[in-house]
Amino acid sequence: MPRQHGLTYVWRPISSGRHAFAATALDAAPDCPVTAYCGAEARAADLHDRPEQEWVRQGTCMTCWGVLTRRGR
Questions:
Q1: What is the DSSP code (8-state) at residue 2?
Q2: What pLDDT, in 10s, does the model give residues 15-43?
Q3: Rounded distance between C-alpha atoms, residue 72 and residue 16, angstroms
Q4: Which of 61, 67, 42 has its CA nearest to residue 26?
Q5: CA distance 62 to 9
Q6: What HEC string does 18-49 produce?
Q7: What is the DSSP letter of 59?
Q8: pTM for the whole thing?
């Protein structure tokens, strides 16, 4: 179980938008590559401590949104 209090996914702004990642990505070693539900890649370290202005500037990835919506059915 990830340390994220029972979460199964988290949204994080990376350079190309606000993407959804499996919550376990937050537990990966900092230099490990992690992949969003849409296929966007980032380093695990890039998922931590994001400034609030990045959340506002980045739009939600609609591909991640769609994947998570379909999972809920």
A1: -
A2: 789 999 999 999 999 999 999 999 999 99
A3: 25
A4: 42
A5: 15
A6: EEEEEHHHHHCCCCCEEECCCCCEEEHHHHCC
A7: P
A8: 0.85
